[in-house]
Structures are given as C-alpha cells and as structure tokens.
C-alpha cells in the first residue's frame, strides 16, 4: 500500500512534481493545498483540498508533504513553508524520478525532489527542500545547500558549493571548486567562473 503525500502549491511546478511522483510509484497523492479561490479545482486530476489554514487538520491524516511551490525570484515562501510545516509536525520525504541518476555515494536532504533525467554524482550533497530540475547535473563533491533550485539543464561542476536559497538558472554553468553565495540569482545561460558573494545577481 502506498503512503499518502500532500502537495503544497498547485502551479506549474506542481505539475512536474506530480509526474515524478507518479513515475516513482512510492506515494499516493492525497491532494493539493493552494489559495482559497482554487479549492475544488484539479491539477492533473488531483483535487485542491484546502488552504494553508487547513494544514493542521490535513497533516493529522497525511503527515508526508512535498512543497511544490516553484522558486525563481525568491526562495522566501518555500523557506517559510518548510519551517511552518516542520512546526506542525510534517514529514518531508525525498522524491526521486526513476529516470534520474543519483550516485549511491551522494546524499539527499529531506523534502528535496530530483526531477527526470537529473544527474547527481558521487560525493555530491544536496540539502533540504531543494529542486534539482529536469536534466540538471550536480557533479562530484558539489554541495547544494538548503532551499536551492538548480534549474533545467544547469551544470554545477565538481567541488562547487551553492549556498542556501540560491536560484541557479536553466543552462547556467559553473567552473569547478568555487562558492556561490547565499540567495544568489544566476540567470539562464550564465557562466559563473569565480566565487560570488551573498545575494549576487548574474545575468
């Protein structure tokens, strides 16, 4: 019997997460939490069953959650949700597409999702509540700290540390063994060839 999981956020990223969850086959989606005006609607056939205000009740019957709110401009709401849900007693399983490759020597934090055809190599470490999106590559010895989004087809090379709350855009690439400061924003297609201070914006 599959464990139930509750999804928090019903937008476009949620659709991609649903597809990964269905393909992984470990969890049954119990429903989605979103804004009050969306309650009763469906996302890929799964109902929006409540709002943030309903979470204390919903978590009593379904403690497993995945934050399916996307992250581009700011990590703030995903971080807030993670801490709010933790206080309410939520559990944060790691979700991994069967079409992804994660080394047996890599480490994944709770609440992180590894999307289709992503690759996480040996001795890489991924923090909590991260998105490693479709076809992203996290190379050997890289560290992705908590609440980061490594977007589609991005390349984080060996030994790089991406600090908390960073967005690393589609097709962006780093050289090896550098540090990207916390809550940085790396635009699509950018090349990062040196250390970055916190809250850097690279266009």
Structure characterization notes:
With 203 residues, the chain is of the alpha/beta class. It folds into two domains: 3-87, Rossmann fold (3-Layer(aba) Sandwich), CATH 3.40.50.20; 99-195, UDP N-Acetylglucosamine Acyltransferase, domain 1. It is built from three helices and 23 strands. The strands form five sheets. A seven-stranded parallel sheet has the order 6-9-12-15-18-21-23, with helices on one face. β3 and β4 (46-50) form a beta hairpin. It is globular. The chain starts with a strand and ends with a strand.
Specify the biggest β-sheet: 7 strands, parallel
Structural class: alpha/beta
For this structure, what is the CATH class of the largest domain?
Answer: Mainly Beta
Work out the radius of gyration. 16 Å
Low-confidence stretches: none
Number of strands: 23
Helix-residue proportion:
10-25%
Proportion in β-strands:
25-35%
Annotation field: number of helices: 3
What is the arithmetic mean of pLDDT? 97
Question: What is the H/E string?
Answer: EHEEEHEHEEEEEEEEEEEEEEEEEE
The CATH superfamily of the largest domain bears the name Hexapeptide repeat proteins
Intertermini distance:
47 Å
Which CATH-level-2 architecture of the largest domain?
Answer: 3 Solenoid
Cα shape: globular
Q: What's the structural domain tally?
A: 2
Q: What order do the strands of the largest sheet run in, or round the barrel if closed?
A: 6-9-12-15-18-21-23
CATH topology of the largest domain: UDP N-Acetylglucosamine Acyltransferase, domain 1
């Amino acid at each position: 019997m599959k464990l139930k999981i509750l999804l928090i956020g019903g937008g476009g990223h949620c659709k991609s997460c649903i597809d990964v969850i269905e393909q992984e086959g470990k969890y049954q989606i119990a429903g989605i939490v979103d804004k009050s005006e969306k309650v009763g609607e469906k996302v890929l056939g799964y109902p929006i069953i409540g709002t943030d205000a309903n979470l204390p009740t919903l978590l009593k019957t379904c403690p497993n959650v995945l934050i399916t709110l996307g992250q581009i401009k700011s990590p703030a709401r995903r971080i807030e949700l993670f801490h709010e849900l933790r206080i309410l007693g939520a559990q944060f399983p790691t979700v991994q597409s069967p079409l992804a490759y994660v080394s047996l020597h890599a480490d994944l934090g709770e609440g992180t999702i590894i999307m289709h055809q992503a690759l996480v190599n040996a001795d890489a470490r991924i923090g909590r509540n991260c998105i490693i999106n479709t076809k992203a590559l996290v190379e050997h010895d890289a560290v992705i700290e908590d609440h980061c989004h490594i977007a589609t087809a991005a390349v984080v090379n060996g030994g790089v540390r991406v600090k908390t709350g960073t967005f690393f855009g589609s097709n962006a690439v780093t050289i090896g063994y550098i540090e990207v400061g916390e809550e940085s924003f790396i635009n699509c297609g950018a090349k990062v060839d040196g250390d970055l201070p916190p809250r850097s914006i690279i266009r």
